[in-house]
Design goal:
There is one protein chain. The protein is mainly alpha-helical. It has one domain (3-171): Arp2/3 complex 21 kDa subunit ARPC3 (Orthogonal Bundle), CATH 1.10.1760. The chain has 6 helices and no strands. Helix 2 (35-45) packs across helix 6 and helix 4 runs antiparallel to helix 5 (96-121). This is Rod shape-determining protein MreD. InterPro entries: DUF6580. The chain crosses the membrane at residues 6-26, 74-90, 102-122, 142-164. Pfam families: DUF6580.
């Protein structure tokens, strides 16, 4: 593949990820965000594992600078990194079924990790097993929106990029 074609792929995939990060800044339903789908997409489509992490993380961080940071961000970023890693495992096995399955798994892991972080850092919940369970129960309504949004964005992003790969020769190979 020509260097120029690789650059076009890099710019396109990066552009998709940054556009998704900008989407976070627009009004939207609570916990319906493209964040998990952009992490999974970056992991699945960048051949260079460094780029798979760097581009989505930069996009996420820049949008977080606008939205604001909080004391449990380490758990959010750990969940995001886990989703990128799952995307890397998805690479070369991308299908509708596989993508939906790993998006559900990623969403569940992100929910467990970030609610654990809320329990650890917020001071809202007692520092006991019961308090941890309270944080998970309180997060269930948010998880429902998050899961539906993640599946919707994954379908749009992965489906749209698949159409691009099918119709534009430059995009036939992963970057």
């Amino acid at each position: 593949m020509r260097t120029q074609d690789l650059k076009l792929q890099l710019i396109t995939i990066s552009g998709i990820i940054f556009a998704l990060a900008i989407f976070r800044l627009l009004p939207h339903l609570p916990n319906v965000s493209p964040v998990a789908a952009m992490a999974l997409f970056g992991g699945a489509y960048f051949a260079d594992k460094r780029m798979a992490f760097v581009v989505p993380f930069v996009a996420l961080f820049l949008s977080d600078l606008v939205l604001g940071l909080h004391n449990s961000m380490i758990f959010v970023y750990a969940g995001f990194a886990l989703t990128v890693a799952i995307g890397i495992l998805l690479k070369n096995r991308i299908s509708m079924t596989n993508t939906a399955f790993v998006m559900v798994v990623s969403s569940l892991l992100f929910f467990l990790l970030t609610n654990f972080g809320a329990w650890m850092t917020s001071g809202i919940y007692p520092q006991s097993f019961e308090g941890l369970l309270q944080s998970y129960v309180a997060g269930i309504p948010f998880f429902q929106n998050s899961l539906l949004g993640n599946l919707m964005f994954a379908a749009i992003i992965f489906g749209g990029y698949h159409l691009l790969q099918e119709n534009v020769a430059v995009f036939k190979k992963q970057l």
